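During the practical work, I selected for study one protein's amino acid sequence and its backbone structure tokens, as given directly below:
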Amino acid sequence: FAFRPSVYSESWPGIREPVPSLTYSFAGAYTGDQAVFSAFQSDLHGAGLSAFRLVTSGTDFLYALDWQHTSYRFYPHIDFAAHDPEAWAVPILPDGDYSIFLAPDFSFGVFGHPWEQSICIFGEPLLRAFAPFRPQPFSRLIRRDGQTL
């Protein structure tokens, strides 16, 4: 993925975005209104968990990676309060650090960039799984297959 951490826009995106992929801006989440942010985050986490469950079986896991904190195996089919942001040790919506959910074989995943305020979804199975949910954060597409629109 050629990860390049940077707060500078000339270095974005932070990875070599795979083909196929869609990258969305989530800049609308940070309005300063906590209710707006909470709704945005809850919507994304609910849609993300639903999509993750569609692409995994009951015993499968994804890697949940946060480059500055403990990473872990995330089992999407284990019940937890998905709409509660505190229930996610690594959130899908980046909270100041990069957040990554990745299939063990790297075939699909989600890469959240905190400074670009973007989320890249990649891999055909996960793109198909997210399609019916269209969470609020996915209203503004900024790149397709790594190419700026």
